[in-house]
Specification:
Blueprint lengths: L2 H6 L11 E9 L2 E10 L4 H16 L4 H8 L3 H9 L6 H10 L4 H6 L3
Antiparallel strand pairs: 1-2
Helix pairs in contact: 3-4
Length: 113
């Protein structure tokens, strides 16, 4: 199944959007052949909870995605993508987001335990 189909398949959900697909080439007698595609989901159940916690924190702060995006100097789609799990946040981005939401990073992370 092509990667785009997996992204849009209701069975696989939004957390498969970050599939890692590698085409592995095997060379035999000078002929390169695509052998297989490796697919790996980048998101665990814990990351889904993390995304939900970020959404809830934004709601408690009474901020829209657009307002958060403006404070981060990013497009609204950036907030939408990290909240839906389509995009991962690195540590620095996470710290910037929680600062905008007026949440202490350790308070949010403790809820993952």
């Amino acid at each position: 199944m092509p990667e785009q189909d997996l992204k849009n398949d209701p069975k696989t959900g939004p957390f498969v959007t970050a599939l890692i697909c590698e085409r592995i080439l095997e060379e035999r007698d000078g002929v390169k052949t695509a052998v297989r595609i490796i697919r790996k989901s980048s998101f665990s159940a814990e990351y889904k909870v993390f995304c939900r916690l970020l959404q809830e924190a934004r709601a408690r702060a009474s901020l829209t995605q657009q307002e958060v995006a403006k404070r981060l100097n990013r497009p609204q789609s950036y907030v939408s993508k990290y909240e839906s799990g389509e995009r991962r946040l690195d540590v620095i981005e996470f710290l910037r987001v929680v600062k905008v939401l007026s949440v202490k990073p350790h308070d949010l992370l403790k809820k993952l335990e």
